[in-house]
């Protein structure tokens, strides 16, 4: 009995080592295969991505709530210390903005009247869904966020994501209850934009740094730091005129744009449905939202 | 087969299984931490490679509880969660696992500085490989600054996380 067990062991140990080595190599090969499949953007991989997104979304949603609470509590303490100063600043700001509001209302009325004269159709009504940010991209090479609204709220791929400040990015993956937004700073982000004052067109390209740069700017374009950059509406996926940022630097490393969005305070984003549902077939009508703010 | 110890009850077996899963569960949680929105300034640049530390530690001290299949799964889940190019993290973690498994005698029972030095080498290689593959998959060389920063932060955070691992190791896995 004893001799037999020993024999089994003598045979089993190398066998097991060989199996382990084989399994290890197979897993390494599987990693490479995943890389290729991911790069080729195979449908199966995309399905798996969205499926996993939906599984993880509630986990992130639950975990991000205490994280939100802590970070806002920390911010609150700092803000209380400066509340008087801030109040004074806000009063002057409000006075200034009241004047702007009047100007804007006057211009809006004038715009409506002129549009009426020219028979110019109004921009399609934009339907909005607001979602809570439940995840940041946690890597050195990606800039994206997870949002807790998905296909069941009418979110589709390509929609613009905004905060009150400006454009955040575009929806790149949609799950049933969650979506991933590719930020405008991501390496793969390309947004057609124009310079508001000079109407020069360009493409805003991310490079994983905080300040994306402008591509394909015409050589005659006169740009200077401080110029506002807005979406041009070309390509049809994004509405025209969404604020993106200001030109921060015109220099040797190209034209850098400072986005309006404060990346460290992304808590909610609005997803804009530009009303493309009329063109695309087989798309479910946006369900009546329970939790969204419109 | 006769054994001197009595067979385990169901609860005991459940307890044992849960304890044995601790390294995997911790690492899985660490894979999801970077994705949590913590609203720190510039946080996306500063996320340490938590899973790298975890895989390194458990491969050195409890390789039986951190098999290659678990390492692979953690890498895939991390890439999925972060929206990163698929396969890169699992490849790096598997490489770490494979290399460390062969050299673990260098670290077991030695002072912590030895393990830290070993981790520095692993971190260097992992940073180089992840940058290369990310650049390759992006089709252009990416900015090095973010990778370097991640390298430094990862190295600096390792002792803190290792302390936590040691505590867990002693408390949960002392007799497993």
Q: What structural class do you assign from the helix and strand content of chain A?
A: alpha+beta
Reported for the largest beta sheet of chain A, the result is: 6 strands, antiparallel, barrel
Please state the structural category of chain B. mainly alpha
Strand content of chain B: under 5%
- Annotated CATH architecture of one domain in chain A: Beta Barrel
Classified in CATH, the superfamily of one domain in chain A is: Rod shape-determining protein MreC, domain 1
The helicity of chain B comes to: 55-70%
Features:
heterodimer; A: about 290 residues; alpha+beta; six-stranded antiparallel barrel; six-stranded antiparallel beta barrel; 3 helices; disordered C terminus; B: mainly alpha
Please explain how this structure is put together.
The complex is a heterodimer of chains A (294) and B (176). Chain A contains three helices and twelve strands, in the order αααββββββββββββ. In chain A, the strands form two sheets. A six-stranded antiparallel β-barrel of chain A has the order 1-2-5-4-3-12. A six-stranded antiparallel β-barrel of chain A has the order 6-7-8-11-10-9. Chain A is of the alpha+beta class. In chain A, strand 4 and strand 5 form a beta hairpin. Chain A is globular. With 176 residues, chain B is an all-alpha fold. Helices cover 69% and strands 0% of the residues of chain B. Chain B is globular and about 65 Å long. The two termini of chain B are 21 Å apart. Classes of the chains: A alpha+beta (294), B mainly alpha (176). At the A-B interface, helix 1, helix 2, strand 1 and strand 2 of A face helix 3, helix 4, helix 5 and helix 6 of B.
């Amino acid at each position: 009995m004893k001799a037999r067990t020993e024999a089994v062991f003598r045979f089993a140990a190398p066998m097991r080592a060989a199996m382990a080595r084989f399994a290890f190599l197979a897993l390494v090969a599987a990693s490479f295969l995943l890389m290729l499949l991911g790069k080729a953007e195979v449908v199966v991989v995309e399905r798996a991505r969205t499926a996993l997104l939906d599984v993880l979304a509630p986990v992130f949603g639950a975990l991000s709530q205490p994280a939100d609470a802590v970070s806002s509590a920390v911010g609150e303490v700092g803000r209380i210390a400066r509340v008087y100063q801030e109040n004074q600043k806000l009063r002057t700001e409000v006075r200034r903005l009241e004047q702007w509001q009047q100007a804007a209302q006057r211009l809006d009325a004038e715009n409506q009247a002129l549009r009426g004269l020219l028979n110019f159709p109004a921009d399609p009504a934009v339907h909005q869904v607001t979602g809570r940010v439940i995840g940041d991209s946690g890597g050195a090479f990606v800039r994206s966020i997870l949002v807790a609204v998905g296909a069941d709220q009418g979110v589709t791929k390509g929609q613009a994501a905004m905060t009150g400040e400006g454009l955040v990015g575009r929806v790149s993956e949609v799950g049933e209850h969650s979506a991933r937004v590719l930020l405008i700073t991501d390496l793969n982000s390309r947004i057609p934009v124009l310079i508001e004052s000079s109407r020069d067109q360009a493409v805003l390209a991310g490079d994983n740094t905080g300040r994306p740069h402008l591509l394909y700017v015409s050589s005659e374009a006169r740009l200077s730091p401080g110029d506002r950059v807005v979406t041009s509406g070309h390509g049809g996926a994004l509405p025209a005129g969404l604020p993106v940022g200001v030109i921060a630097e015109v220099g040797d490393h190209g034209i850098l744009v400072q986005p309006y969005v404060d990346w460290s305070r992304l808590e909610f984003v609005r997803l804009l449905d530009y009303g493309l549902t009329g063109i695309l077939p087989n798309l479910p009508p946006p369900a009546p939202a329970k939790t969204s703010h419109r | 087969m006769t054994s001197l110890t009595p067979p385990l009850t169901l609860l005991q077996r459940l307890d044992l299984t849960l304890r044995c899963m601790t390294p995997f569960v911790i690492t899985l949680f660490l894979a999801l931490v970077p994705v949590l929105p913590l609203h720190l300034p510039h946080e996306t640049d500063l996320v340490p490679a938590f899973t790298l530390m975890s895989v390194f530690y458990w491969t050195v001290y409890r390789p039986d509880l951190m098999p290659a299949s678990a390492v692979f799964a953690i890498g895939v889940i991390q890439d999925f969660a972060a929206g990163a190019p698929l396969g890169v993290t699992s490849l790096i973690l598997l490489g770490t696992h494979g290399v460390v498994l062969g050299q673990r005698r260098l670290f077991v029972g030695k002072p912590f500085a030895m393990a830290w030095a070993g981790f520095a080498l692993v971190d260097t290689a992992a940073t180089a490989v992840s940058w290369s593959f990310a650049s390759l998959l992006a089709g252009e060389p990416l900015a090095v600054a973010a990778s370097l920063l991640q390298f430094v932060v990862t190295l600096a955070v390792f002792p803190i996380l290792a302390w936590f691992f040691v505590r867990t190791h002693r408390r949960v896995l002392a007799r497993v």
